[in-house]
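Reagents: none. Just compute today. ABC transporter permease.
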Amino acid sequence: MTRNTRILMSVIYWAFVVYLFVPLVLMVTMGFKDSKFIGFPIRGWTLDWYSEIFRSDEVLGAFGYTMAIALSTTLLSLVIGTWIAAFLGPHKFRGKLIVFALACMPAVIPGIISAISLRIYIQFLQLDTGMAAIILGHTIHNVPFVALVVMARLATLPQSHIEAARDLGADQFVAFSRVTLPYLKPALIGAGVFCMLLSFDDFVRSFFLGSYQPTLPVLIFAKLRSGMSPEINAISTVVLVITAILGIWAERSMRRMNKGTSV
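Predicted 3D structure written out:
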């Protein structure tokens, strides 16, 4: 790589960083504005918008409701996705590619199409809109991501570990729980955090499958209909901080566990 090429790649990289982070910086900055309207110049700074959202029963209720849905969805997605990965990973059978494609299909269907089809499906099942319907929709969407991550990790598991456990008298279930499952922990943590963030951020399915109790993205959308305000920026900033903390924790945990399993 020539010097000019390296300079060009550096310029492109930093231009992308600026393009990515400047809107986030502006969003965070507007959350401290001492005014009800978004825009420059900022004549005063305040923390009132943050104290207001932490005192708001509406915002806290939506946050707790969204977290409950995200945690339930993550748990179900990990169980189902790990089962699919364990079934498709080591086994070879006719039609495996078709089964794999069907398992991954919910991840590639456009969100609006998925939401409409899920709304029709819960009506067919005579299931009311609300928390259970949202969890069902989010789980269907998130399972393929868990399956893909776990399958990638499972492909690196040395078969000698499983064979050694079987030689020592472990049956299939014990070998999975004592050997395979601990080896999959980094992948499960990463997939779990990813599913939680997907569910927490999902607006379209939550909007179509939800009832009177809104999730946090739906609540933000409802507030946007009356115009932008620093309150929305404050809510978004809090969500951004929580997302960053979860992402950093997951990355550090996965790195530490990968080092442990590679020793």
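The chain has one domain: 47-262.
Action item: order primers for follow-up constructs.
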